[in-house]
Design goal:
The protein has about 120 residues and is mainly alpha-helical. It has one domain: Multidrug-efflux Transporter Regulator, Chain: A, Domain 2. The protein has helices at about 10-20, 25-30, 50-65, 70-105; strands at about 40, 45. It has a two-stranded antiparallel sheet. A hairpin with a 5-residue loop joins strand 1 (about 40) and strand 2. The protein is elongated and about 80 Å long. The N and C termini lie far apart (about 60 Å).
Length: about 120
């Protein structure tokens, strides 16, 4: 069975083992607004693959770059903004490609019936 990267399927204990963080640390990141797991009707936290990736990124920023939570918050916002802008650039690029294709089709000369094979 495969899950999308955004589907909440992992409990906090599984995620804590995967990212090598204590569950309390993950909860602290949640309180700081750095991660927002899905909550079931019975209030159990469920994390997606994307959440796990975010936690690994946060851990890297803290362990390797020495950032504190305020620095991680800034990096998170910047990272989200870069991803948003990259998505927008991709949308605009596709729009330009479609526009150029439509323009090229309109600018092709009509075939001359006198020179057409037949």
């Amino acid at each position: 069975m495969s899950f999308s990267e955004f589907e909440p399927v992992f409990t906090i204990s599984i995620v804590a083992r995967r990212v090598r963080l204590h569950p309390q640390t993950i909860r602290a990141y949640e309180r700081a607004g750095l991660i927002e797991p899905h909550r079931t009707d019975s209030n159990i936290r469920l994390y997606s693959g994307r959440d796990v990736e975010r936690l690994l990124q946060i851990k890297t920023w803290i362990d390797d770059l020495g950032l504190n939570l305020a620095g991680v918050e800034i990096m998170t916002r910047l990272s989200d903004r870069v991803a948003e802008l990259e998505g927008r650039v991709n949308e605009l690029t596709m729009e330009v490609v479609r526009w150029r294709a439509a323009t090229a089709r309109r600018s092709l000369p009509e075939p001359d019936p006198r020179t057409a094979p037949g």
